[in-house]
Design brief:
This protein is α+β, with helices and mostly antiparallel strands. It has three domains: about 170 residues, DNA methylase specificity domains (Adenine-n6-DNA-methyltransferase TaqI, Chain A, domain 2, Alpha-Beta Complex); about 90 residues; about 140 residues, DNA methylase specificity domains (Adenine-n6-DNA-methyltransferase TaqI, Chain A, domain 2, Alpha-Beta Complex). The chain is built from 14 helices and 20 strands. The strands form six sheets. A four-stranded antiparallel beta sheet has the order 2-9-6-7. It has a four-stranded mixed beta sheet with strand order 3-5-8-4, with no helix packed on it. The radius of gyration is 25 Å and the shape is elongated.
Length: about 450
Amino acid sequence: MGVWHIVNFQTLFAGLDLSAEHYHPDKLHWLKIFRASNGKAVGEVARNSRNLTKQSATLSPTLPVFDLGAGSRHVLQRGDAIQEERVSTKKIVEAGDILVSRLRSYLRQVAIVPVNIPKANVSSEFIVLRPINRVAIAFLLPFILSKQVQTILAWSQDGNEHPRFHEKLLLELQIPPAISAISGRLNDLVDQVDKLLFTASEILTGAEAMLNNALGLADLDLTPRLFYEARFADLSTAARLDAEYFTPRTQNIIAALSRDGRAIADVANPAKRHFKPKPGQPFNYIEIADLTVSGIAESKSISGEEAPSRAQWIVKPGDIITSTVRPIRRLSAMILPEQRGFVCSSGFAVLQPKDVEPEILLTYLRLPLVCELLDLKTTASMYPAISTTDLLRIPISLPDKQARQAIAEKVRESFGARKRAKIILDTAKRAVEIAIEESEVAALRFLKGERE
């Protein structure tokens, strides 16, 4: 539906900006309210840090590197650090910084650098807001994620293929006094989110360690060997000649996982519930970029008319989805009850557990040594992928029922902590929106009600 709006010549933005979308009435409405509030500008509480690593040699191997996708989780997490790419120019960030992607604002890639990541390298597409005089600016996270600020950013983008907004817009954006008044409360809420996510990550890591130990993988001889040999009969049976597959390390992993004589196909069925988009009917879509280190899948709402061709599989609670593209990245997730009927990309294999707890299959598919084995089954170079058939043939060994129950409980505990973190961040964001639309008092009343 078209939007008609008339603006006076005198009200054109700096540089006589004639881009029609920049004058969308919703954007102008919120800009007017922010300016009328006479609050401090973002640039008065945070400076734009431009500390760059200009050569690949300056990228310290001890520092994690994050791309824009890590911003979608709103708190940087070590498990989201990329491993493959360290050659382009990056920005150096510190704990307490707020990162705002200036590219495609609708992706809401806004995040805080947590205390447990003192320093990191990030994509140069991030605007890095650093506290002035070390005064906490965590409250800027829910402020920038609020619908009002997101509306302004969405209608301030230039470009078609790579739409960006200018960092000057963000730095000059005024923070209503009602937000400043509750900034301490908001800082506390973001701190709670940070701690819950860290706890969730530690619990999940513990669950993986428990399964790793129960399967005896921690005791394997994984010493790299420069020289080794294999029998021709073994090459014929495996129907492959690549040296990596026949290393003692790989063969020890395969032997350990094969001791039960079972494959993934014995404990899970491939679920192929085909999806057909319909015009006028939006759906929740999960793509590979939506998987997190937490074993949980995010999603986005897409209209039926804009359904990508890869939106093919309908998922149900308890399903395990695992990326068949670059499986070494450990991208697997469990579908939660509230995600019933969501749709996922054809880049996933959808597995329906039958003789194993979903949490155990999820943890198994995320074990680094299992992912190494999956990676050895991939084909192609630019987008190495494993077929669902080969995935189902991967050997699997499981611990006893008591151990499985303990591991599954850990996974559920981790999921619970992440769910609480999401609720708290949503609460902080809603409090910001109420403060902007109503008042500081209304926002505080809302926060009190949520706490009680």
